[in-house]
């Protein structure tokens, strides 16, 4: 015990001696350092704790925001799909109802007459007109209504065709009103009211679609979708009625035969026109402009469908900024335009000869031979050009454009769907020729024409679709600039330098590709040749040449009513196919 006490006392004395050996200044500095060091230690401890507290909170907040925004986006997509589904079902039910009326009129014209179908269509037109006026006067004028406009929707050629065919449809209904007024003694008032309503409907619809075909509406989306689908269904029913209703054609033929019997001395009970010259003008105008009415309805359906797809669509700045397409230049292309002009001149000569013969009582068989012989020479050339262009597309270095583009998707669907019209007529002609008289020269030409037309549609669709899915040359990223970006990533605050680099690289890229290599030149030659050929093949059926109905072979085989429906179903689609092909071939030419 004593030894332990002595050791403790010695240690305490040593400690006091060591404290006494330290100078007062050092003691003060040590005390200050202790005091000042305590506060930073506490602050560092607090800061470290805060950092430790915030470190797990930042991903938590970020994950909460992601979940919140993804939930909002999911709800928005669900609401958009629900609106599309409801409006689609509305259009489907309207089309089924109108189709049931039209089919009942065809198969049982006693219970359901043409007047009943007109009343139904007049009610649908009135509803569609009310929505079109409301959309123009109220919906589009509200703030934040149209934030984006689709640069790919409603190109110039579509809107031009809309105005052209709409004007022809208005003239068609004017001729119908004139024809009805000349037979007012034996016509009902409904036959005059219905064309007048259709003139108003076509005029207002053409104006609205011309002005708002690029809109991406962001408000009243469900009501806008339903209005667009109602208008689309109305145009579809108008097209279906025009395809199946042959009452006007039958009435004109009956009146012509009655006039012949009257001149021969036989009395008939047919309602005849008092002014024969005026009635002849109305009849010729009606028969010539009849295909334009069906064309107009098809174009309106396409434009309305694109507008329906764009409702509620939000475009990114990159998507919304349409790159400036280059102007239309020949770039030294000679062979394609020359061959195309030769086809156009030859087709115009055949068209004039056929029209002169069509104005007479009957068309000689030699003119049918000239018509089908011209096509038997032009169609194989077009098919070979399309196959060569498709092969050149496979050799190109341009990448495929995989970005979402509703307008391009609709172009492809319309191209494939419209091709079915003329191909369907060709298959019916093949069956009729093989089953009857396949050994005559004219029948051989019709058979060759039908087969070559099917092959040409297939080859041209392949060429156009392949060209539409190639990235245009002016949108391709310069490889030198891409390499520079990979080697030297852009620094902060260097937007001006980046813009200058983009301009220099773009100018260098355009300068280096200002000359055409053989692949680009060949694609441009082929595109120009096909553009002129399709214009020629569009001109003939659009302005009154219908040898499929006038040669009498298929009409005798299938019957008048059946063949009338087949031709009126396929011929407008064929005219639309040629017109649509010209528009998309211009895009292929500019992108080559």
UniProtKB/TrEMBL annotation:
Organism superkingdom: Eukaryota
Could you list this entry's UniProt keywords, alphabetically sorted: Cell membrane, Hydrogen ion transport, Ion channel, Ion transport, Membrane, Transmembrane, Transmembrane helix, Transport
Indicate yes or no for the key word Ion transport: yes
Q: Which GO terms describe its molecular function?
A: proton channel activity
Q: Does the keyword Lipid biosynthesis apply?
A: no
- Location in or out of the cell: Cell membrane
Q: Where are the transmembrane segments?
A: 85-111, 117-135, 156-180, 192-210, 296-312, 333-358, 370-392, 412-435, 526-546, 558-577
| Region span, Disordered | 1-55
This protein's membrane topology, according to the annotation, is: Multi-pass membrane protein
**Record-linked Pfam families:** Otopetrin (PF03189)
Query: Which InterPro entries has this protein been placed in?
Result: Otopetrin
Family of this protein:
Belongs to the otopetrin family.
Protein name in UniProt? Otopetrin 3
UniProt source species = Phocoena sinus (Vaquita)
């Amino acid at each position: 015990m004593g030894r332990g006490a002595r050791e403790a006392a010695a240690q305490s004395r040593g400690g006091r001696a060591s404290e006494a050996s330290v100078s007062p200044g050092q003691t003060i500095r040590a005390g200050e350092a202790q005091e000042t060091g305590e506060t930073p230690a506490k602050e560092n401890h607090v800061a470290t704790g805060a950092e430790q507290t915030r470190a797990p909170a930042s991903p938590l907040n970020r994950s909460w925001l992601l979940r919140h925004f993804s939930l909002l986006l999911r709800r928005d997509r669900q609401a958009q799909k629900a609106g599309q589904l409801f409006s689609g079902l509305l259009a489907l039910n309207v089309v089924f109802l109108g189709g049931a009326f039209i089919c009942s009129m065809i198969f049982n014209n006693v219970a359901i007459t043409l007047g009943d179908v007109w009343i139904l269509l007049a009610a649908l037109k009135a509803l569609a007109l009310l929505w079109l006026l409301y959309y123009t006067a109220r919906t589009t004028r509200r703030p934040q209504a149209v934030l984006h406009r689709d640069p790919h929707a409603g190109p110039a050629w579509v809107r031009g065709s809309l105005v052209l065919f709409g004007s022809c449809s208005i003239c068609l209904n004017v001729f119908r009103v004139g024809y009805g007024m000349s037979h007012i003694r034996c016509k009902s008032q409904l036959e005059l009211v219905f064309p007048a309503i259709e003139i108003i409907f076509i005029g207002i619809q053409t104006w609205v679609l011309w002005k708002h075909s690029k809109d991406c509406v962001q408000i009243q989306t469900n009501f806008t979708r339903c209005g667009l689908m109602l208008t689309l269904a109305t145009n579809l029913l108008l097209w279906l009625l025009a395809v199946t209703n042959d009452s006007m054609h039958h009435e004109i033929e009956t009146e012509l035969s009655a006039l012949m019997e009257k001149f021969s001395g036989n009395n008939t009970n047919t309602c005849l026109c008092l002014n024969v010259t005026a009635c002849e003008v109305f009849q010729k105008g009606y028969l010539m402009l009849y295909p334009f009415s069906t064309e107009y309805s098809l174009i309106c359906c396409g434009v309305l469908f694109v507008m329906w797809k764009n409702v509620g669509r939000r475009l990114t700045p990159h998507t919304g900024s349409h790159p400036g397409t280059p102007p239309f230049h020949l770039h030294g292309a000679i062979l394609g335009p020359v061959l195309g002009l030769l086809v156009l001149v030859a087709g115009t000569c055949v068209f004039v000869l056929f029209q002169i013969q069509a104005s007479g009582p009957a068309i000689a068989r030699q003119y049918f031979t000239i018509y089908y012989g011209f096509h038997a020479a032009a169609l194989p050339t077009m098919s070979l050009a399309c196959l060569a262009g498709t092969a050149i597309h496979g050799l190109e270095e341009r990448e495929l454009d995989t970005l979402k583009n509703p307008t391009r998707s609709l172009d492809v669907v319309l191209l494939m769907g419209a091709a079915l019209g003329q191909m369907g007529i060709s298959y019916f002609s093949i069956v009729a020729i093989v089953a009857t008289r396949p050994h005559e020269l004219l029948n051989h030409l019709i058979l060759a024409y039908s087969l070559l037309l099917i092959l040409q549609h297939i080859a041209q669709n392949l060429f156009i679709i392949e060209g539409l899915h190639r990235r245009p040359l002016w949108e391709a990223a310069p490889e030198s600039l891409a390499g520079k970006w990979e080697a030297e990533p852009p620094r902060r605050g260097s937007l001006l330098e980046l813009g200058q680099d983009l301009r220099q690289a773009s100018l260098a890229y355009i300068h280096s590709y200002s000359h055409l290599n053989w692949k680009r030149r060949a694609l441009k030659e082929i595109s120009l040749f096909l553009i002129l050929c399709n214009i020629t093949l569009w001109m003939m059926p659009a302005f009154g040449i219908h040898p499929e109905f006038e040669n009498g072979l298929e009409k005798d085989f299938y019957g008048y009513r059946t063949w009338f429906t087949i031709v009126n179903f396929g011929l407008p689609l064929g005219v639309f196919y040629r017109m649509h092909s010209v528009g998309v071939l211009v895009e292929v030419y500019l992108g080559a």
